């Protein structure tokens, strides 16, 4: 594999590579992210789709999102780990699930969204920006975020 950030699913059947700089990361405390991560919050690294490549057996499941668009959720067929999402409004970007990185210490959120749904015991660094829900124009925020303005 070429140089870059690597990761994969829990069983190792699905592997991915993100070339270029480490994409910015945000944490989302919404109910959907709690469900998809089966944990307290979701971690997303927003990468350019062209910088991202994946190998292995994946399946897609898609759901409506609150932007009035659809989120395609991609997971390993073998072990079910959610690996990345694609929002139909920003098809040129992928939202890679932070816990799947080989080096999870690189998944450092530079913003927290949906903190109104945050579990009380999750304590946030006051220096990191938060949004009670999500930025008004989430698609634009993601696009700007992805170019590095929030890092
Ligand atoms: Zn797997
Ligand atoms: Zn969320």
UniProtKB/TrEMBL annotation:
Keyword Zinc applies: yes
Presence of keyword Amino-acid biosynthesis: no
PROSITE patterns xrefs: CENP_V_GFA
Pfam annotation, one family: GFA
Domain CENP-V/GFA: 5-115
Sorted UniProt keywords: Lyase, Metal-binding, Zinc
UniProt cross-references to SUPFAM superfamilies, sorted A to Z: Mss4-like
InterPro entries for the chain: CENP-V/GFA (IPR006913), Mss4-like_sf (IPR011057)
Recorded family membership: Belongs to the Gfa family.
Protein name: GFA family protein
Organism from which the protein derives: Sphingomonas arantia
